[in-house]
Design goal:
By secondary structure, the chain is α/β, with parallel strands linked by helices. It is built from 8 helices and 8 strands, in the order H-E-H-E-H-E-H-E-H-E-H-H-E-H-E-E. 43% of the residues lie in helices and 14% in strands. Bound molecules: NADP nicotinamide-adenine-dinucleotide phosphate (NAP).
Length: 248
């Protein structure tokens, strides 16, 4: 018999964007391990197929779903595939993101890199959320998790003494501050529905994005998985890390 944790997400369909590697892969692996059908959203077919096959090899119900969050046609096509094959979406984890800058002061930040960062991290996230919302509304208790970061927190980065004031990634950090605001806006729109929308701070995890610095990505994935499986009495419209709510 499956234990509760192995069946906690049984029957749910979960899409994780950017799930072929890093924290996204670990979120998909964990949700799959709890019984969810996991859709490995990835823009590269080979990497996406590979990741899904790896999880199927672990006994999970995993499927590659082509999706480039910056390409509206691919986002709409992904929604179409989910609609025709599964008819609904229980969990959306907006995980895909880029960090393209070097450590430079804001006065020297490259505007082109900033635009490209916002295309993926901000506009891509909104496009995916809008496209998937009709499917999330068809689920009994839809959950949206937006991957954010402590570096997005204005409180934790304002002033000399603030823990993250050292970080000089104008595009990345502010794109995630926008993600925090977008989380609140969607949560408000959906207050009278069963859908909950929260942001997750995975903490520093050793992936390509962090140049391999930090803890194992499986540990960072845990908070996102928890938010993806929130019960009816759970919160909406907040930013959460390992130790609970993170200040905006
Ligand atoms: N690592 C950390 O310390 C850390 C800390 C705080 C927050 N986060 C957040 O956690 C999330 C995952 O980060 P990570 O560290 O796992 O990063 P990562 O290893 O660099 O993985 C990023 C993923 O996003 C995908 N992606 C990028 N642009 C995309 C697009 N246009 N369409 C579809 N997929 C796209 C990448 O796909 P390709 O393989 O095709 O490039 C990759 O699968 C991000 O939202 C990040 O901001 C990470």
């Amino acid at each position: 018999m499956r234990s509760r944790s192995m069946s906690e997400a049984a029957g749910r369909v979960a899409l994780v964007t950017g799930a072929a590697r890093g924290i996204g892969f670990e979120i998909a692996r964990s949700l799959g391990g709890k019984g969810a059908t996991v859709l490995i959203g990835a823009r590269g077919a080979a990497a996406g197929e590979d990741a899904a096959a790896r999880l199927r090899g672990e006994g999970l119900d995993a499927h590659f779903l082509p999706i480039d969050v910056t390409d509206r046609a691919s986002v709409d096509a992904a929604a179409g595939i989910i609609a025709s094959r599964w008819g609904r979406l229980d969990i959306l984890v907006n995980n895909a993101a880029v960090s393209l800058e070097r450590d430079v002061p804001p006065s020297a930040a490259d505007l082109d890199l900033m635009r490209r960062t916002y295309e993926a991290n901000v506009f891509g996230l909104v496009a995916v959320t809008q496209a998937m919302l009709p499917l999330l509304r068809k689920a009994p208790a839809g959950r949206i998790v937006n991957m954010s970061t402590g570096l997005a927190s204005l409180k934790l980065s304002s002033g000399r003494e603030a823990p993250f004031s050292f970080s000089r990634l104008l595009a990345y950090n502010t794109s995630k501050t926008a993600v925090n605001g977008i989380t609140v806006q969607f949560a408000n729109e959906l207050l009278d529905t069963p859908i909950k929308v929260n942001a997750a701070n995975p903490g520093l995890c050793a992936t390509d994005l962090s140049n391999g610095k930090g803890r194992p990505p499986s540990e960072g994935a845990a908070v996102a998985v928890k938010l993806a499986l929130l019960g009816e009495d759970g919160p909406t419209g907040g930013l959460y890390g390992d130790d609970g709510q993170v200040p905006w």
